[in-house]
Write a structure and sequence with these properties.
Blueprint: E1 50-58, E2 77-83, E3 90-92, H1 98-101, H2 114-131, E4 139-142, H3 150-155, E5 160-163, H4 167-174, E6 180-181, H5 187-197, E7 200-206, H6 215-225, E8 226-237, H7 239-244, E9 257-258, H8 261-270, E10 273-281, E11 287-294, H9 307-318, H10 324-327, H11 329-349, E12 356-357, H12 361-370, E13 380-382, E14 399-401, H13 406-414, H14 429-432
Parallel strand pairs: 4-5, 4-7, 5-6, 7-8, 12-13, 13-14
Antiparallel strand pairs: 1-2, 2-3, 3-9, 8-11, 10-11
Length: 441
Amino acid sequence: MKNTLVSTGHPVIGRPAIASEPSGRALPSPAPAPVPTAGTCRFCGTPLRVTFVDLGPSPLCQDHVRPEDFNRAEAFYDLHAYVCLSCLLVQVKDLIAPAELFPNDYAYFSSYSASWLRHAHDYTEQVTARFGLGPEHLVVEVASNDGYLLQNFVEQGVPVLGIEPAENVANAARQKGINTLSKFFGLATAQEVAATCGQADLLIGNNVLAHVPDINDFVAGLAALLKPGGVLTMEFPHLLRLVTGNQFDTIYHEHFSYLSFWTVGHIFAHHGLTLFDVEELPTHGGSLRIYARHADCADPALAVTSAVPALRTREVAAGVCNLDFYVDFAASAKETKRKLLEFLIGAKRAGKTVVGYGAPGKGNTLLNYCGIRTDFVDYTVDLNPHKQGNFLPGTRLPIYHNEPNPRRQRRRLGNRVQRPLDIQKWSFRTILESPCCYRVH
């Protein structure tokens, strides 16, 4: 019989639900065997004892090595994800302070991704029309980065406020005329903003929900900053797609949590928020965009759509409430590691050259987990000038400028790379296979 978790309601902080079979008997020990407790669940407080996947020691994925620091030692931290037996939240331990993860020289700038800019523009058009946003409304984005999204609302005359902890990234937004507060977001920041700027008509958080170590403080802050009749939208990688697509390389220290729609619904409900709509997106290998409101909001325009129960049903059918769905994942990651190393060994023995395209966080997880260094991959290229001239963390692969002209790019690579192989930016495969770039096989 498969290991099954049965929930009779929302998890209660500090009071873990009891895992049992439908018959009421205690669950058998899951495979692999439980590990010593790794602390407690960041949502419900249950001791963490079951491994989701252990990717070994790894450096911070955006902590690129400058040439002058090349001979200095790097800090490596365990990259070990667990699943909570009570609320099924997949998570890594918060071993690193947020200020270290998102320093004032943070290297990720959203505006260097043309596809992400298009995604942000399309979102703005959609929500502005759907919710009738105008000059009398306030749009607030948490983790607003360099203003890649809010600039679209500014162009439409909608007042905005960005909240971005990395000072250098926030300054880039200010240079675009976007009012940006440099603070980490939580309940205290939300109360401060609500008191000084007012509550948000539209509150946005793209790829930030997974990045917060204290998810209860964060979601409580969202509830405090959202107007009584306001709308909250958040995007995050979908755990279901991570598991079914074997996307273990989306796990890194910046991502504290890995989220299913089922679990996010429980977390938001605990803080008085209701999910009333959801969209499935292709971004980042498969993401969700959730729409939430206050639970006591009676606006018929914000009624729960059919998409919500439909996705919950699909997740349950796929096994997200079944422990085997989680504990079997590690074996898939190990097999991928073996296959990739077999391919690279064969390619190098055949005299071929392999280079990387892009320097994303997921690439660093993959390279470090598989032990791939310059003996297998010569270098990588990236459009972000803040990364160019540096080296990937851990593996020390050099990061070069990406030639924007496709013909020159092919000439640059053609004599060295008989079969270009992208092993890092698989979530951007459609872009890489467009006419503007060399084809990825």
